[in-house]
Write a structure and sequence with these properties.
The protein has about 220 residues and is α+β, with helices and mostly antiparallel strands. It is built from eight helices and four strands. It has two domains: about 5-80, Glutaredoxin; about 90-220, Glutathione S-transferase Yfyf (Class Pi), Chain A, domain 2 (Up-down Bundle), CATH 1.20.1050.
Length: about 220
């Protein structure tokens, strides 16, 4: 069965930075499912018309088309029940919903002002105006202003990462002895930050980097 993931790319199509696409790539690895990717860019809306919407990730699994990272994860869990569960038992599944909310509302919100000014510069030329307009509307200021205030935003990131560091002192992965979708959610957010920041977000040897390496090693990536 041919399996294809539409994956957000920078001007250099080897640079893939979407936190939502990373969730899906790790979920596919968790389920031991092979796939190929199609590099997609923000303004290439027509390329996704077949999916009935205009954002990635979009997974084409044979005749099945699934959009939205959470919907894709739920689909993979149902379609491939004989592979390792992404969510685990019902209590773990419920806790994963909290991790998703924290990742999106706290962690990604803390990372965004630190990476958006540089991220726009690595995008394909046709994406830059769109990205600037949409992100400046959300933040109510210019990307240049965010860049000038970088030092102001750094403590917010450190505060957001504190519970993650505390957890990783006690166990190897958020889901316990092995990674699961809770780890994928947080990994995607931090990978986005590391890939698109003009300056290092984490010091060398940070426990978070060790955890990220462990996630990839678990899946042979």
């Amino acid at each position: 069965m041919k399996r294809v993931l539409y994956d957000l790319a920078a001007a250099d199509e080897t640079v893939r930075f979407s936190p939502y696409c990373w969730r899906v790539k790790l979920a596919l690895a968790h389920k031991n499912l092979s796939y190929t990717t199609v590099p997609w860019r923000f303004t290439d809306k027509a390329a996704l018309a077949f999916s009935g919407q205009d954002k990635v990730p979009v997974l084409v699994d044979g005749a099945k088309v699934v959009a939205d990272s959470q919907t894709i994860a739920e689909y993979l869990e149902t379609a491939y029940p004989n592979e390792a569960s992404l969510f685990g038992e019902p209590p773990s599944r419920a806790l994963t919903k909290f991790i998703k909310a924290w990742t999106e509302d706290v962690l990604q919100r803390a990372i965004a002002p630190l990476v958006l000014p540089h991220l726009v510069t690595i995008l394909a030329p046709q994406d830059q105006a769109y990205f600037r307009e949409t992100r400046e509307r959300v933040w109510g200021t210019t990307l240049e202003d965010l860049a000038a205030r970088r030092a102001e935003f750094l403590p917010g990131l450190e505060a957001a990462l504190r519970p993650l560091r505390t957890m990783l002192k006690a166990q190897s992965f958020l889901a316990g002895p092995a990674p699961a979708y809770a780890d994928h959610l947080v990994y995607g957010a931090i990978k986005w930050g590391l890939t698109t920041s003009a300056e290092p977000l984490l010091p060398a040897g940070d426990a978070i980097l060790t955890w990220m390496d462990g996630v990839l090693a678990t899946y042979g990536l």
